[in-house]
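A protein record pairs a chain with a discrete description of its three-dimensional fold. The following entry can be read in just this way:
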Amino acid sequence: TFVSVGNSISINFAERVEIIYGPASAMYGADAFAGIINIITQDIPEGKEAYFQAEYGSFNSKDLLISLKGTVKSKLKLFGQFRLFHSDGPDLSHIHTLFNIIEQYQAPLNKKFEQPINDHNVFLKAIYRDLEIAYFRQKFNEGNAWGFTPEIYIYSKKNKWEFSTDILYGKYEKDMGENGVLNFNVSYKNMKLEPESNFFKWVVPGVTDSTFRQYMTGADQSYN
């Protein structure tokens, strides 16, 4: 599905991470020819576990992680995880002369490198006997960073890549013994590219009045 492994995804509770390189990954979709990353979450324990993590670092970076998981009355297994990550982002203008063009920015642009990060994700899962229901939400809001040439793209906080992904699914799997396995899956996926997701470009480098905005928006919904 459309999930970006940026600063929004935490692998603190991953049992393992599987990576498939090259053409073999194409079996997962036409756009997957470069590779596939599969994050396998840990099993839910028989007891109850709670985890809280809060970190603060350079660039005014804040990372908050909350996780609750466990078994209720020996049959119902519950898992919940929430992560919030914010950072002002690095100032690349101090480490590479390529970004000296930022000093030419004119009002209303600020004469500084602005690429903040505002991401979060939520993952909820319940398992009762042979039935599993889960919900996943990801909000990805990050700048273009090294991705584009400063002579073409403007590095302001409005120049960003912002989208959300919501996945709701149910799965029923019953072992029928000699008759095999009965498997039923239903899912809803919604990806939305936010209208605020813009790429600001120069028409003439350094001339603010000649900039234009390239909107890259859209929504994709699917039922399986």
